[in-house]
Structures are given as structure tokens and as C-alpha cells.
């Protein structure tokens, strides 16, 4: 039996359609155009993949897109001044500072200077604390997208064993919080975990977010498990005619698809959902900022 392939690209399109509906309602009914500001400091190859689709999709759903491209040598003071300006701008409902930042900038300081209500990445310490205590917050886009796909595929997650591989602040930790919020029994595995294959084989839900190409193979997976592959790794293409590089996940798809019950592909899985959830968070932020009921089905 081969796994059901969860189509993140199609799911993301349906999320964007919902977002577009809410944007239209905000515009026509209330004269509000949700706006997303993206701040890029310097150039990072991994970030470029992301930026390519994002501005386009923001405009496609009817929102305003503000891009601020700053040189790599921008000072912390100048970056903080820009964020202060965006915090104060009523046309800006969401602010995203592209990570990683150049080494001379303190990313914790920068992220925590964003107004938490406009922190559509959900990385501000206030949002992290709100999520961890089950209060209304901005939820990080990648874990939110994973949660939406899991709920859509499985219905209830209650009582299931979930294993998250990776303990980053942007994926692993918030993902674990969301799964706990949906009453999973959650394990966070990482590079120092003993018998990691064994730990993973107990998972009904396996989320791989380590950034190591094809680390998880079919023999790590419980038959029938739902596998979410967060990894986006660019590796050299083995065959001529495939271009110089190709994208692979943290899961070895060919062996995993034979064992899992369902699996997300790379590309076309978590990546498109991340961008869709960024737009969803922006429309949610715009509703909250104006005291309007928040969109249903777009929040955790
Ligand atoms: N503050 C901040 N927030 C982020 O969310 C953030 C960031 N910084 N820095 C960079 C990473 C990277 N990231 C991606 C999102 C979607 C795709 C995506 O849609 N990928 C396509 C593949 C695109 C292709 O074919 O190259 C897919 O998986 O199908 C990729 C990468 C968000 N990031």
C-alpha cells in the first residue's frame, strides 16, 4: 500500500481563496485593505525561494504589499527605526523580518521590537508565551500550515502519538505546542536523541523539521503514520537534464511513501502552506486591529 499524498499546493490555494474572501469583505464592508510589510536585510539564497512567490500572492489575494530591501551592512539602529515606523503605520497590519539576519544584527532584539499584534511570523516572545499558555496569539506560519493539513487529513488528533524531529524556535517548538493543544502525546526528538529511529517508529504523526536531506527513511516510520516533511533542502541533481540542483525534504520520499498512511511531498507540501498561512495571519491581524470578528478556519 502506498501513502496518500497530501497536496499542500492545492490546500494552500484553498486557504488563499478563503483569505481573498475575507480581504474583499474588509475592503467592501469596512474600507480596510490588509497590508503586509516584508523587511529583507542583505541577500540570503534560502530566503530568495520564499520571497519569489510571496509578494505576488499577497497582491493576488487583494492585500497591499510593502517591501523594504536594506543593504547587508544596515545598522541595528536603522533597522529598529524602520520597524518602529512600520509599527506606527496604520496601513501595515503584518510585519515580517526575513530570517536569518546578517551576523552583526541581534535577531532576538529585532524580532522583539515588532508590535506583537503585527508579528505575523509569531516569533515575538509575547506570542510564544501566549501560544505556550493556550491564549490567543499569532501562530508561526509553518507549524500552523502543518496543523491545518493534519486536521484536514485526520480529523481529530486527540490521543495520537506525535513526534516532532527538530527543536527550533520557528518550527519544532511551536509545532509541539500546537500538537499538545490538539491533545496529542508529544515527543520532541533532536540530534542528541537516543534511538531516534525507535522513537519515530512510535509516532502516529511524524513531523520532520531538522534540515537534513532525506534523513528519515521508510524504516523509521510506523505503518500507516501521517508524515509531514518540513525540510526544504537544495541538493545537487543526480541525473543530467534535471538542472544543477533539486529540492528534497528531511524525509526520503521513495521509501517513506511505501510505509506511511499519508505524506506531504517536497516541493508542493509544507512550503506553499507556509506562505498561505502568512497571508492568513495578516488578514487575522487586520481583523483584530479593527475589532472585527476573526476569520474562521484560518487560525489555530
Ligand atoms: N521571518 C521569516 N519567516 C519565514 O517564514 C521564512 C524566513 N523568515 N526566511 C526563509 C524561510 C524559508 N521559507 C519558505 C517558505 C515557503 C517556501 C516554498 O513555498 N517552497 C516551495 C518550493 C519553491 C521552489 O520550487 O523553489 C515548495 O516547498 O513547494 C520555501 C521557503 C520561509 N521562511
Automatic annotation (TrEMBL):
It comes from [Roseibacterium] beibuensis. Residues 6-121 form the Tetrahydrofolate dehydrogenase/cyclohydrolase catalytic domain. Pfam families: THF_DHG_CYH, THF_DHG_CYH_C. Pathway: One-carbon metabolism; tetrahydrofolate interconversion. The gene is folD. CDD domains: NAD_bind_m-THF_DH_Cyclohyd. Keywords: Amino-acid biosynthesis, Histidine biosynthesis, Hydrolase, Methionine biosynthesis, Multifunctional enzyme, NADP, One-carbon metabolism, Oxidoreductase, Purine biosynthesis. InterPro entries: Aminoacid_DH-like_N_sf (IPR046346), NAD(P)-bd_dom_sf (IPR036291), THF_DH/CycHdrlase (IPR000672), THF_DH/CycHdrlase_cat_dom (IPR020630), THF_DH/CycHdrlase_CS (IPR020867), THF_DH/CycHdrlase_NAD-bd_dom (IPR020631). Homodimer. The keyword Cell cycle does not apply. Belongs to the tetrahydrofolate dehydrogenase/cyclohydrolase family. The keyword Nucleotidyltransferase does not apply. Catalyzes the oxidation of 5,10-methylenetetrahydrofolate to 5,10-methenyltetrahydrofolate and then the hydrolysis of 5,10-methenyltetrahydrofolate to 10-formyltetrahydrofolate. It catalyses: (6R)-5,10-methylene-5,6,7,8-tetrahydrofolate + NADP(+) = (6R)-5,10-methenyltetrahydrofolate + NADPH; (6R)-5,10-methenyltetrahydrofolate + H2O = (6R)-10-formyltetrahydrofolate + H(+). NCBIfam families: PRK10792.1, PRK14186.1, PRK14188.1. This is Bifunctional protein FolD.
